[in-house]
Structure formats: structure tokens, C-alpha cells
Specification:
Layout lengths: L1 E7 L2 E6 L9 E10 L2 H9 L1 E2 L2 E2 L4 E2 L3 E9 L11 E4 L9 H4 L28 E5 L3 E3 L6 H4 L2 H14 L6 E5 L3 H12 L4 E6 L2 H9 L4 E4 L17 E6 L4 H10 E9 L10 H6 L3 E4 L6 H10 L9 E6 L3 H8 L7 E5 L6
Parallel strand pairs: 11-12, 11-14, 12-13, 14-15, 15-16, 17-18
Antiparallel strand pairs: 1-2, 1-6, 3-7, 3-9, 3-18, 4-5, 7-8, 8-10
Helix pairs in contact: 4-5, 4-9, 5-6
């Protein structure tokens, strides 16, 4: 089988491997579509992010869908030909965080395509994948396998919503409207937010944000004062979701959030200095949001039931043989949101 392997910064290859062996509790899956995530781009462009660096060749990818090809003897309830979304989250279930229901903080997490531990956790960008049956989530007949691969980034947004503590009737700002920010907007609309304002520095993501349900889109590159009216009376937004990883966006959010508002940071950025006097004086709750686990099943249900339509997020789909081109396209934010790779297995 072919797999997309990162050997280091700017060294991405399509390599050949043997198909892995399947255990009795597992499924062999033909991977159909894989979405290129920001972390995949960081590995490709820089060899890692923050202090995390690739130390050995690693398959990338964690946003995938597929078709079951073979079923292990103990994988009850599954059959060949089933179309599925695949959760990349594989917690151990036994550590203290798993026992507390905080599976995303598992001490032995095997999240696809992660160089955080060593040996690295190989990713899912391969023609075939052996998965635990618990990772498989059936998709509706009407849902395309391309859309099903959006379950992972939608799960990230749903977890961020959970971290905010509810958005029903709230005034909400989302800064950074890439795939996660835009899918988050779709979830916020479904979750009952009263008003959603989207902010970015490019028109393409803002058009997507509006398509996903935002009430207003503000381009801060062309209209730097676009959020100024929301600074009145100590701020107007009950909740802010910062999905860009930009230090400037995080600081600007502090000016427009209400006292005792919740600011959820979703985007990964570098270390920044924060105006602590402002955080203290406004009693702002600053909360991180990292990955997900139980939200994946909810994301698949939302997609299956048509409660969130992710189609506007997908801007390009390229075949496996053009994987390098797909990564370059995904890195060009002027013309791309979610770029997916078609592994050519959906109907094989």
C-alpha cells in the first residue's frame, strides 16, 4: 500500500509499505478521503511545531473516512462494505485521566499522526488502515465519504463549545475562520447562539463563515476598526472562540468580550504576553481547548442528520498521486480552506 510519509521539513514522500496485520477486534479499512490539517502542514513545512519535532519518518493525517474491507472475528456488528468515519483518538481507557472521562488527556494517547511521543504515532494517510472497531462510526447513505472526513475538525469545534459551557442565547465572536473555525460556526448555530460574528484577515474564510451560519463577517485586514463598536460598555461578546492562533487576535478579543465572558483558545500559536490587568479587571475566563474524544460520535450524527453542512469548507480534492501538490495548495490560505486527498478506495 502507499502512505504519505513526512521525513522532515520539506521532505514529504509517498512510500510503499506492507498492509498491516489485523487483530480479531479490529477492522481493515480502505481509506477513502483524508483532510490536510494545520498540524500536518506544520510537520511538512517546519518539521514540527513548538517544541515537537519529527525524529523519525511518520505517516501524516488524522481526518479520514473509509470503507470496511475485512472484519476481525471479534468485531461484532460490522461487515465488509460499510462506509465509515474514523476517529483518530485512541486513548488507553485505563490511566487516571481516562478514568475521569478526560480521554483527550490520556497519558498513553495514540492519536494518529503525532510526533509528541517517541516512537511517533503513525498517521492515517495510507491506502489501507487497520483500526479498532471502536474507532469506526457508520455514515448515512446520503453523506459522501468526502464530507464524512470532516467529522474530525467538527469534533474539535464541538469540544471547544463544551469548554465554553454553553452558547444558548449568547453573543459570540469567532476569530480565525479556517476549516475548524467555520465548522465551529456551524455547530454554534446549531447550539443556539443568538448572534455569531466571524473575524479573519482574508475574504475566502469569511465567505465560508457566512455560508456556515455567521451573522456578520469582518475582514480585519481591510477594516481594522471592524470590531470597534463591540468594545462599548466593557465589551459585547459573552463568548469568544480564538481559532487562528494569532497573538494579536487573542489580545483584541479581550477588548470586546464582556466582563466574566469566556474566551476559548482553539488555535495553536506560540508563547505570548497577556495583559493580566485586563483579564483580572474584567474577570475573564481564559480556557484552552485540546482535541476531543466523545464529541466525535456527535459530529458524525450532526453530519448524518444534516444538522451541520460542511460542504462549504471543502475547497479542493486531489488524488493520492498529487499529494505533494495538495499540501502546497493547503498551505496557500489565499485560495484554500480544507484540501482533501482522494485515496481512490471509495469504490474499489
Amino acid at each position: 500500500m502507499l502512505s504519505i510519509i513526512c521525513h522532515g521539513a520539506q521532505d514529504l514522500r509517498v512510500d510503499t509499505f506492507d498492509v498491516p496485520t489485523m487483530a480479531p477486534h479490529q477492522l481493515l479499512v480502505r481509506v477513502a478521503f483524508g483532510g490536510i490539517c494545520g498540524s500536518d502542514l506544520h510537520y511538512h513545512q517546519h518539521g514540527g511545531f513548538g517544541t515537537v519535532r519529527i525524529k523519525q519518518p511518520m505517516a501524516l493525517g488524522h481526518e479520514v473516512s473509509g470503507v470496511v474491507e475485512a472484519v476481525g472475528a471479534q468485531a461484532v456488528g460490522w461487515q465488509a462494505g460499510q462506509r465509515i468515519a474514523i476517529s483518530p483518538s485512541r486513548p488507553c481507557g485505563a490511566c487516571r485521566y481516562c478514568q475521569q472521562g478526560q480521554h483527550n488527556h490520556c497519558l498513553a494517547m495514540r492519536f494518529y499522526g503525532s510526533a509528541m511521543p517517541f516512537p511517533h504515532i503513525q498517521g492515517a494517510f495510507s491506502e489501507k488502515l487497520v483500526i479498532d472497531a471502536a474507532q469506526a462510526h457508520p455514515i448515512a447513505d446520503h453523506l459522501s465519504l468526502s464530507e464524512a472526513a470532516l467529522a474530525e475538525p467538527l469534533s474539535v469545534g464541538l469540544h471547544a463549545m463544551a469548554r465554553a459551557g454553553g452558547v444558548l442565547g449568547k453573543q459570540v465572536l469567532v476569530t480565525g475562520c479556517g476549516p475548524i473555525g467555520s465548522l465551529l460556526i456551524g455547530a454554534l448555530r446549531r447550539g443556539g447562539a443568538a448572534r455569531i460574528v466571524a473575524a479573519d484577515i482574508a475574504d475566502l474564510p469569511l465567505r465560508c463563515a457566512l455560508a456556515m451560519g455567521a451573522d456578520e463577517a469582518v475582514n480585519l485586514a481591510t477594516t481594522p476598526e471592524g470590531l470597534d463598536s463591540y468594545k462599548a460598555d466593557k465589551g459585547q461578546f459573552d463568548a469568544v472562540f480564538e481559532a487562528s492562533g494569532s497573538p494579536a487576535a487573542l489580545r483584541a478579543a479581550l477588548d470586546v468580550i464582556t466582563p466574566r465572558g469566556v474566551l476559548v483558545t482553539v488555535g495553536l500559536g506560540g508563547d505570548i504576553a497577556l495583559p493580566m490587568n485586563q483579564i483580572v479587571a474584567k474577570e475573564i475566563d481564559l480556557r484552552g481547548s485540546f482535541r476531543f474524544h466523545p464529541e466525535f460520535a456527535t459530529a458524525v450524527k450532526f453530519l448524518n442528520d444534516g444538522l451541520v453542512n460542511g460542504k462549504p469548507v471543502i475547497t479542493s480534492v486531489l488524488p493520492l498521486e498529487r499529494a505533494l501538490e495538495a499540501f502546497e495548495l493547503a498551505g496557500d490560505k489565499r485560495q484554500s480552506l480544507k484540501v482533501q486527498i482522494d485515496f481512490g478506495q471509495a469504490l474499489a
